Amino acid sequence: MKAMILAAGLGTRLRPLTNAIPKPLLPIAGTPLIVWNLLLLKQHGFHDVVINLHHLGPMIEQALGNGSRYGLRIIYSREPVILGTGGGLKQAEQHFSGEPVLVLNADTLVDLDLGALCEFHRQHDAVATLVLRKDPEAAKWGLVEIDSDNRIVRIAGRGRTDQVPTQPRMFAGIHVLRPRLLRDVPKSVASTIIDPYVAAIQRGEALFGYDCEGYWSDIGTPERYAQAEQDASAGRISLASRQLPA
How many angstroms separate the CA atoms of 100 and 95, rounded? Predict the structure, then answer.
């Protein structure tokens, strides 16, 4: 299975920091955010990683090279016009070889057993599996509703219309999907991957939620960036288990 890291974003909420450096290269404990995710992928047996680029993309490419330093093979998908999560995945579709792909956000710091996530996806024969979190403010992030079998019923109010008991979750920005979901995504047009997910739910296809119980932080604001630095200093998340190359 290949992985894709979404790294094309503008990082507007972190300006002026991101005026001169792309958000994926902002350091946490001295190591760029995107490298934390590359090492997580390597730790769990991934070898091939696609990274999409837009804002200050050449800086990311120069910093990471071909990935050999991390024991990985990196392929870059360059976006002259930013395409969002749906359009970005569509443009990179050729690199997935029709196989399921694991998608992460470059600006998300997480401790998660990716092997267990992928095995859950296979066992449930899911068209997509979204990593979810319990959060009292789930609705603020975009409410994801799951039933008692962890099957996703609605995303941000869209999906199934039947009334079944559900539990609230928030989407953690990590997901596994079958590329056939990209079939109707328009090429070279900005879009969100949530639209194909909602359409699949409405068709009765199986999308599942996988709860993340470990550390997670979306480095989207100066406050959360500062908190992540504090968390790393306090040992709440550490590079030690990710085997940083010398």
Answer: 11
Residue 243 lies in a domain: no
| Total of domains in the chain | 1
| 245 located within any domain | no
Residue 94's contacts (CB-CB under 8 Å, 6 or more residues apart) are none
Distances in whole angstroms, Cα of residue 76 to Cα of each of 145, 243, 244: 34, 24, 22
Predicted local confidence at residue 15, as pLDDT: 76
- Give CA angle at 107 (59, 238), nearest 5°: 105
Strands 101-105 and 167-177: antiparallel
**CATH code for position 196:** 3.90.550.10
Name the residue range of residue 176's domain: 2-236
Q: Which whole number is the average pLDDT over 175-188? A: 94
136 pLDDT band, cuts 50/70/90, is confident
Phi, psi of 83 (to 5 degrees): -115, 0
Mean of pLDDT values over 159-172: 92
Task: Give 217-230 pLDDT, tens digit per residue.
Answer: 988 888 888 999 99
- In angstroms, the CA 231 to CA 85 distance is 28
